[in-house]
Amino acid sequence: MFFLCTTISLRHQQNMVRLHRQHPKLCPARTDQCLLRRQLGEEGLVSTYTHSHGLNTFIFRFADIVGPRLRGAGIPDFIGKLHASLNSLTILGNGCQEKSYMHVIDCVDAMGHIIEHASEQARPVHTYNLGTKTTTAVDEIAEIVCDVVGVGPT
Known about the structure:
This protein is of the alpha/beta class. It folds into two domains: 1-62 and 104-132, no CATH class; 67-100 and 135-154, no CATH class. The chain has five helices and seven strands. It has a three-stranded parallel β-sheet, sandwiched between helices. A two-stranded parallel ribbon has the order 3-5. The chain starts with a strand and ends in a 5-residue tail after the last helix. The relative contact order is 0.17.
């Protein structure tokens, strides 16, 4: 078995590219299209290798995974900023960006379930988007962190 773990943002990026092609003035081209192309290239390379060598491959596209050891993401960043200064919390961007968040335990359970039931499927490459049906705005996350830490957002 072979595993490729990547980001779920591929689906979002494909939608952005499609929107840009349909409405170039309303939806400008984004620099992260390079990431989209890279990700599609990686998945294509893995698929070719899988078919060439008779492997069984799982491609997992993860949402934002959260858990107790999370580092270098929005939630720990907000907590760190509030510990440094309880008077203010700076949010990069406009705060309206929405993301799908999934707990690490739920993610591992989903991966285990998929792998366990994959024998029922005949195809060699299995691609799954792991996330939730809901999204949460960054400013909502900031409000929750402020509530937990016990300060009001400014």
